[in-house]
Amino acid sequence: MIRCTQDGDTWTVTIDRPDKAGALTQDMLTQLARCAEDARSAKLFILTGTGKVFSAGADLDAARAGLATDPVWERLSAAIAALSGLSIAALNGTVAGGAFGMILACDLRIAVPSTKFFYPVMKLGFLPQPSDPPRLSALIGPARAKMILMAGQKVTADEAQSWGLVDRIVAPDALLETAHALGQDTLAADATHVSGIKRMTG
Length: 202
Description:
2-enoyl-CoA Hydratase, Chain A, domain 1, 11 helices
């Protein structure tokens, strides 16, 4: 259900569980974290999904069994944030709940027009993963972060782009092509130059 492929300096990680809206189990999250850790020196890292939903967050049965508060979420987002190259979340559809962490840890987020964003921790009674609120606030500001986390608002792709959560909206058939195109200058550069600019831009 997690596909991790390497083509030279490009790593592509795909959540492939369209029949369950990309819902994540403990095993899937561990695989994602391992992929990101193995790709630590990649120049281009693309995170995507299949079907009409990127990820609905934690599988509900697994969440009730304790996955919602498992440290594996932070392990995954930390591994993505630590990548030395350019990381791009190529969102094929809606992002919900704990799935926010991995996309917030990416450098760029591109999305298809139908994408929606929501993080219903207030309604479900869970706290968000510790690194998610500060990353979200850094991107869109504290008030808008509270719109998502506290007011439980579903944000459309257009609204997310106007807020700064999404960097570009693209047609579904151009999603991966756009992600690869955005990475071309990075792939052509020396690895030390790539990592240097990554450090300088935070």
